[in-house]
Design goal:
Elements (H helix, E strand, L loop, with lengths): L4 H14 L4 H8 L3 H9 L6 H11 L3 H5 L7 H12 L4 H20 L1 H4 L7
Helix pairs in contact: 1-3, 2-3
């Protein structure tokens, strides 16, 4: 599976904004150009492994959080995102989201056969 550069870029940007950091400051702390940061965030560039690790360290996130859209086994990252998404919900909102999540889970489990790729005969 290839790295989803656009998704990784969105996650870098979100982590940078959450850290209240500008592209210029991130670039300076990582030791890359501001243009490179911009390209990474837009999904038009890919960092080296060392740069990705430096970005994760500067932004205080894991590389899993930046790459979770390209990695199959990232359940903890998505569980964390669900918790963060619902942190500011009031009682009504969390109740409705719980119903929606349960219904979606049931629909996914009821339709497991659609998940499998059909065998093709040529």
């Amino acid at each position: 599976m290839a790295v989803n550069s656009k998704a990784m870029g969105r996650r870098i940007k979100a982590a940078r904004k959450k850290a209240a950091m500008t592209q210029a400051r991130l670039a300076e702390e990582v030791g890359i150009s501001e243009v490179h940061v911009s390209n990474l965030e837009s999904g038009t560039g890919n960092p080296s492994l060392a740069t990705l690790v430096d970005i994760a360290n500067v932004l205080s996130v894991s590389t899993d959080e930046l790459l979770c859209d390209s990695v199959v086994c990232c359940k903890p990252v998505f569980q964390k995102e669900i918790l963060e998404t619902t942190e500011d919900c009031d009682d009504y909102e969390i109740r409705v989201l719980s119903y929606i999540l349960k219904a979606a889970k049931m629909a996914l489990r009821d339709n497991q056969d659609l998940k499998k790729t059909p065998e093709r005969t040529f």
